[in-house]
Specification:
Blueprint lengths: L2 H19 L9 H23 L3 E7 L4 H5 L14 H19 L1 E15 L3 E17 L8 H15 L16 H11 L8 H5 L4
Antiparallel strand pairs: 1-2, 2-3
Helix pairs in contact: 1-2, 2-5
């Protein structure tokens, strides 16, 4: 079984266990409809990891300058006391925890970039000279960016930007079935002349 299918199955099983245990009650009875999305998320992350490994894409971060009030708004306002178990005691504790975490982990602005291939050597080695910005978003505390959903949007943005350089369809349209999407994307990019590293031929078959 390919690494892609193994990780996809693991993601589905993990979500099933969470749904059955009631950890995410909204999943109950809806998991079959969530399967394609879970599989697509796995494929998206695995593909972005390849692009990052090859030096084609990168997600970086820099300190954000939002203040505490701008970041959390009225989350800890006394008006919410009647709707929170424990009232103001809970709100005050959570506000204290948020301030501590902000101080310890910082707040961050994330940026995504892709490389535009400028020259090729012997059809295998590519020299990248131009970075293209694809996405940016701020207001994240610590590593909250990852797992927020914005991370997946960034991955897809990078994949689509690189595909557009070679006239390859966008990630969501390259194939309707997320199980086949990574392999079809790789194949389309190869046929379009993308300068993949030498070892990518074997890599492609890991997605079948």
């Amino acid at each position: 079984m390919s690494p892609f299918k193994t990780r996809a199955i693991q993601a589905v099983r993990q979500s099933m266990r969470a749904g059955i245990s009631g950890q995410y009650s909204y999943c109950k009875g809806r998991l079959p409809r969530a399967f394609p999305s879970l599989i697509d998320q796995v494929g998206t992350k695995m593909l972005f990891d390849r692009l990052e490994l090859w030096g084609w894409a990168v997600i970086g971060r820099k300190p954000d300058d939002l203040g505490f009030d701008d970041l959390f708004g009225d989350c800890f306002a006394p008006d919410h006391a009647s709707t929170v178990p424990g009232g103001m005691r809970t709100i005050n504790r959570e506000e204290k925890d948020a301030k501590f975490r902000l101080e310890e982990e910082g707040q961050w602005f994330y940026l995504a970039h892709v490389c535009h291939p400028d020259t090729r050597t012997a059809g295998t080695n590519t020299v990248f000279t131009l970075w293209v910005d694809t996405d940016s978003c701020g207001g994240f505390v610590g590593d909250d960016f990852y797992g927020s959903g914005y991370d997946t949007d960034f991955y897809v943005g990078c994949i689509d930007a690189i595909a557009a350089m070679y006239g390859v369809p966008r990630w969501c349209t390259v194939h309707p079935d997320p199980k086949h999407r990574p392999f079809v994307w790789f194949t389309a990019m190869k046929l379009a002349g993308a300068p993949f590293p030498e070892h990518v031929e074997a890599d492609i078959h890991a997605w079948r």
